[in-house]
Design a protein that fits this description.
2 domains; mainly alpha; 0% strand; globular; Tetracycline Repressor, domain 2
Length: 384
């Protein structure tokens, strides 16, 4: 039951998932399914729990390696091998975790606690720390590694199986040595990327929707919750917007507008490496310091099919542009030799994943966190 439900979750997301479809595939009566899983969320939770248990188990196995680089490389290789095994039908399906936020509170809270424990194991790949700078470095290392891994299912099929598995050493090299040939910082001017609103009330709804979608997913961010976040009624919501989907599309438009604004500002830099650094610094600064960060990439899978397809199309276009910049940087010597598409996917994953950094970093150490991220981009995650 869990195997079948996991396949359907990965195909349709929680938004399109129905227990009746699981029963139909297995040729079971729905009452038989209900005997084991009384509610839909019980079954979805069981699927996601198996993914979290796998993440935790492999992290504990990788933690036995002698140093942080070999631990991270082993963990990457295990996750790459899992995706290959799934494509070959040699592994039970594990659903992506983007639907975790959609679950009801008792189940979601329990699974989020388990996921936090797994995150702590990955953080332990890196030396323990008490000073703020070292604590930020440790959390950034874990954050970057996990966000790269969580984003891999979105792009693994762009490679043949043999080629995809061979990415492990290249990804490990990217993490160890960084992307840019030079650690020279781009100009320090950091401007706001937030688009100027034509309708301030509508903009407030966009920000509230972004916060709640990042926390609860597309399904969990209900209209009444979005309105309540602003201290308004649902009637006020429908005065400014016709449907929830209109708001979600506008929230994604805001995210892509911010990313594209950063790309435009970076075009003035002389080398491709400097353009990548400028873009990265602007986006990372927004993620760490802005009132509302970008929509998390992990929220894409939970969207309805029509919204999801358009979002992935726009994401692919952005990543392809970054890959072209990386290829140009390799040619002009400002970027280290690497697989441009793989590096672009990793860069996108780490930048969008910065929205998950803890509140104490955003409030108390934003400049320190930003500078450390840029150092990692230039030199790798093992250089503080």
């Amino acid at each position: 039951m869990i195997d079948t439900a996991s396949v359907l979750l990965n195909t349709h997301g929680a938004q399109g998932f129905r227990r009746a479809d699981v029963a139909k595939v297995l040729k079971l009566d729905t009452s038989t399914l209900s005997y084991y899983f009384k509610k839909r969320d019980d079954l979805v939770g069981a699927c996601l729990e198996r993914t979290i248990e796998w993440i935790d188990q492999k992290a504990r196995e990788a933690a036995k390696h002698p140093d942080q680089a070999s631990r991270s490389e082993a963990y990457l290789q295990d996750n790459l091998q899992l995706l290959v095994d799934q494509r070959l039908g040699q592994s039970v399906p594990l659903p992506v975790l983007s639907d975790l936020a959609t679950l009801s509170d008792p189940i979601r809270e329990r699974l989020e606690t388990q996921l936090a424990e797994a995150f702590a194991v990955v953080a332990d790949f890196h030396p323990d720390a008490t000073e703020p700078a070292d604590r930020i470095h440790r959390r950034l290392c874990a954050n970057l590694l996990l966000n790269i891994i969580f984003w891999m299912p979105a792009w693994d099929e762009r490679y043949r199986v043999d080629d995809f598995l061979a990415l492990g050493p290249r990804m490990a090299d990217l993490l160890s040595n960084g992307l840019l040939s030079s650690g020279d910082a781009p100009p320090e001017e950091l401007v706001s990327l937030e688009p100027e609103p034509e309708d301030h009330a509508r903009q407030d709804y966009l920000k509230a929707a972004t916060r709640l979608i990042n926390r609860y997913g597309y399904k969990g961010a209900r209209v009444d919750m979005i309105a309540a976040d602003l201290g308004l009624s649902t009637g006020s919501f429908y005065h400014h917007l016709k449907t929830k989907d209109e708001l979600v599309l506008a929230a994604f438009d805001r995210t892509f507008t911010i990313l594209e604004t950063a790309l435009d500002l970076a075009k003035a830099e002389a080398s491709a490496g400097a353009r990548i650094a400028r873009f990265s610094r602007l986006v990372a600064h927004h993620q760490i310091c802005a009132e509302v960060p970008l929509l998390r990439a992990s929220s894409y899978q939970a969207l309805p099919a029509d919204l999801r397809d358009d979002t992935f199309r726009r994401t692919d276009q952005l990543i392809q542009y970054l890959a072209t910049q990386i290829a140009d940087g390799i040619a002009d010597g400002s970027v280290r030799p690497t697989d441009p598409l793989m590096a672009a996917q990793c860069l996108f994953a780490t930048l969008t994943g910065l929205s998950g950094m803890s509140r104490w970093i955003k409030q108390d150490y934003p400049d320190l966190a930003l500078n450390q991220y840029m150092m990692m981009l230039a030199h790798g995650i093992y250089t503080s």
